[in-house]
Amino acid sequence: MAEGEVTGHAHRLRGKIEVLEKKQEDEQILFKVHHKTTLSHEEHATLILEKGTYLKVQQVEYDPFNDLIVHIRD
User: Per residue of the chain (74 residues), what is the pLDDT tens digit?
Assistant: First the structure.
């Protein structure tokens, strides 16, 4: 589960997964889904993840007015 710092909303994986690598500095997580599983969140439809290896990355957005890259927090 990955919980947002601002709203408390969370992404939840349901099913058998294995974390292969976790990098704290850039918040990347490499994980393996062993069987079809679901990814749910309060603000979007549930997604189906097929068996395979996935990389979770930190979402960012660009603020052109201040020329900044801002990390997105739920």
Answer: 444 445 566 778 888 889 999 887 777 899 999 999 998 887 778 889 999 999 988 777 888 999 988 776 65
DSSP three-state, residue 16: coil
Closest C-alpha among 15, 72, 73, 11 to residue 43: 11
Amino acid occupying residue 41:
H
The model carries a pTM of 0.65
Token pair listed for 61: 């957005």
Domain count for the chain, please give it: 1
Expressed as residue numbers, the domain containing 67 is: 2-71
